[in-house]
Every structure is written in C-alpha cells, then in structure tokens.
Amino acid sequence: MKPGESPGFLLWHVTLRWQRDIAAALTPLDLTHVQFVLLACNWWLNGQGERPNQLAVARQAGTDVKMTSQVLRTLEKKGLIEREVDPADTRAKRLRVTALGAELAPRAIAAVEEVDARFFAPAPIEAAVSLLARLAVDQETA
Questions:
Q1: Half-sphere exposure of residue 102: CA atoms within 13 angstroms, side-chain side
Q2: Coil, strand or helix: which one is 9?
Q3: DSSP 75-98
Q4: Residue 56: burial class (beta carbons within 10 Å; 0-12, 13-18, 19+)
Q5: What's the DSSP call for residue 62?
Q6: CA distances from residue 72 to 54, 88, 94, 133 in whole angstroms, order as listed
Q7: Is the Cα torsion angle 32, 34, 37, 41 positive or negative in sign?
Q8: At 81, phi and psi to the nearest 5?
C-alpha cells in the first residue's frame, strides 16, 4: 500500500494541516491550541452554571489531568481563569473564567469555527461531523 492510500497516514497529514491552521488563527489571541480548548471548555461549563474542578475540565476537553493542571496554571497567570478553594473540599480548586477570559473565549471560538468552516468545506458538514463522531468513540469502551 502506498502512503497516500493509508487512512492513518492521510489522517496524520490532515491533522497536521488542521493544527497549523488553528495555531495560526489563535496566535494573534496569544493562545495555544490546548490553552484555547481548556479556556473554551471552562467558559462553556461556567455558562452552564457549573464551577468545575480541573478533573471536570480535563474530562470535558478529553485531556490528560496533569497536563491540564499545567495549562490551567498558565491560563491563570494570563489572568484568564481563577482557581478558588472548594468550600466542600479544601484540597480541590473550583475554576472560574475571569472577565478577561470571558471576553476572549467567544472571540477565540469564533476564530476556530472560521478555520473549521474553511477546512471542512470540501465535505458536507453533517457527513464530516458524523464520521468524526464515530472515529472519536473508543470502540473498546463503547
């Protein structure tokens, strides 16, 4: 099989191209891709009335908990989120997007959605979402 006929090889190249496009869109906003994902997830959870801890944000984002902790510290240093001691468990921290983070998150989401719209334009959106949703499910745990 030639590399161009291998679904995995093609997916690798597609992913790299998409990641480059996302990074280019987020650079003017001073966000990395993972910072964007964690900020957007936290912003969304806060908008649903939740005050998530780092584990809840990691689960929502599908990221490693330790890496999530490091990135959340960076977002905190940037003034985009705040960590507050959970009154029910003083070892845990509840996360809240700051006013600065709440202003940035929707702009970053719009930038990423614009990239996605251009990137996935060759395929009908319903078909792309359906395929990606099926591929995202862990078949061993499903």
A1: 9
A2: helix
A3: HHHTTSEEEEEETTEEEEEEEEE-
A4: middle
A5: T
A6: 8, 21, 11, 27
A7: negative
A8: -135, 160
Pick from 2, 24, 127: nearest CA to 10: 2
Q: What is the pLDDT of residues 48-106, one digit of tens each?
A: 999 999 999 999 999 999 999 999 999 999 999 999 998 888 888 899 999 999 999 99
Return the structure tokens found at 25: 């869109």
Beta bridge partners of 82: 96
Pair of tokens at residue 94: 């509840």
Residues shown for the chain:
142
| Cβ–Cβ under 8 Å, residues 42 and 95 | yes
Q: What is the pLDDT of residues 19-56, one digit of tens each?
A: 999 999 999 999 999 999 999 999 999 999 999 999 99
Q: pTM of the predicted model, to two decimals?
A: 0.89
> What distance separates the 2 farthest-apart alpha carbons in the chain?
58
Distance CA 122, CA 117 (A): 9
User: Contact 61/41 with Cβ under 8 angstroms?
Assistant: yes
How many CB atoms sit inside 10 A of residue 29's CB?
Answer: 15
